[in-house]
Write a structure and sequence with these properties.
The chain is an alpha/beta fold and 302 residues long. Helices cover 47% and strands 14% of the residues. The protein has one domain: Indigoidine synthase domain (Indigoidine synthase fold). The protein is globular. The protein binds pseudouridine-5'-monophosphate (PSU) and manganese (II) ion. The site of manganese (II) ion has 5 residues, from loops.
Length: 302
């Protein structure tokens, strides 16, 4: 397996010295924003993580190699190349055997982070059960990965393009801890409160790190969802964004958009119709998650 992984020397050194490392995904770069916003977003996450004293490791597949810690030029390639296939767990063997490039989702970023020994990952929002999922069975592979892979994922909950109550039920069934960092509410990405609760509100970073540490000691094989709401000043007006989401979800269904195209399609519609507001909010929450993930990674090395 090791010969399929290429770990950036800086990341390797940090891992070897038990220094804090934070994984980042590449689907959010290729499919979450347009160019050059995606490039700026990725480089800013890198900077924020370093400022907190941790090492960033953006993950992606390049010519069949799993890269842990993309260089600036490689990040640029994922940013410019928005046709890079989205690579979830089921796509991994095909993309690697064909020596293609693949943008890693939450699921595959977790999978590869675990292979490399990285324990903390920052992203925007996790995938989940889609609306009407009880009929379409469109349930993100992110949820199964969270059930099976031991990485702590700092995120702003899940977008309200998803069925959040069913997403939380799924995580409960799979035994995945869903906790808040300084929040009682499970956030829904652009807004701070989905109407559902987290199981516990960790107010203090050392306490959160201790919980993740205990989970690792117990060898519980799942991930952890650490819900970190969008900063108050960047949150969108709930009725404004929910209306746009409803429109986008309906439109996706009417147009027959299916499978792994659904999430990127809805995101791009929101970015277009919100006059850029969703892009600004999306960036703000990703930055905040990068910061909190770095603080968690630092606390976990103590
Ligand atoms: N949620 C977001 N932005 C994203 C994604 C999710 O707010 O860009 C991406 C992540 O990479 C996530 C993937 O893992 O979409 C989920 O896609 P699907 O629903 O097809 O599993
Ligand atoms: Mn899906």
């Amino acid at each position: 397996m090791r010969n399929l992984l290429r770990i950036n020397p800086e990341v390797q050194e940090a891992l070897g010295n038990n220094q804090p490392v934070v994984a980042l995904e590449s689907t959010i770069i290729s499919h979450g924003f347009s160019y050059p916003e995606n490039l700026n977003m990725a480089l800013e996450c890198d900077r924020i993580i370093r400022a907190e004293g941790a090492i960033p490791a953006t993950i992606g597949i390049i010519e069949g190699e799993i890269v842990i810690g993309l260089t600036r030029d490689e990040i640029q390639m994922f940013a410019e190349n928005r046709e890079t296939p989205k690579c979830s767990r089921r796509d991994v063997p095909t993309i690697i055997s064909l020596k293609q490039n693949g943008a890693t989702t939450v699921a595959t970023t977790m999978m590869f982070a675990q292979m490399a020994g990285i324990k903390v990952f920052a992203t925007g929002g996790i995938g989940g059960v889609h609306f009407n999922g009880e009929n379409t069975m469109d349930i993100s592979a992110d949820l199964e990965e969270l059930a099976n892979t031991n990485v702590a994922v700092v995120c702003s909950g899940a977008k309200s393009i998803l069925d959040i109550p069913r997403t939380l039920e799924y995580l409960e069934t799979k035994g995945v801890p869903v906790v808040g960092y300084q929040t009682d509410a499970f956030p829904d990405f652009y807004t701070r409160d989905s109407g559902k609760k987290v199981t516990y509100n960790f107010k203090n970073m050392d306490d959160l790190a201790q919980m993740v540490h205990i989970k690792n000691q117990l060898n519980i094989k799942s991930g952890v969802v650490i819900a970190n709401p969008i900063p108050e000043e960047s949150a969108l007006e709930p009725s404004f964004i929910r209306k746009l989401i409803q429109e986008a979800v309906t439109e996706a269904a009417t147009k027959g958009i299916e499978g792994n195209k659904v999430t990127p399609y809805i995101l791009s519609v929101l970015h277009e119709r919100s006059e850029g507001k969703s892009v600004v909010a999306n960036k703000a929450l990703v930055f905040n998650n990068s910061k909190v993930a770095a603080q968690l990674a630092v606390a976990m090395t103590k």
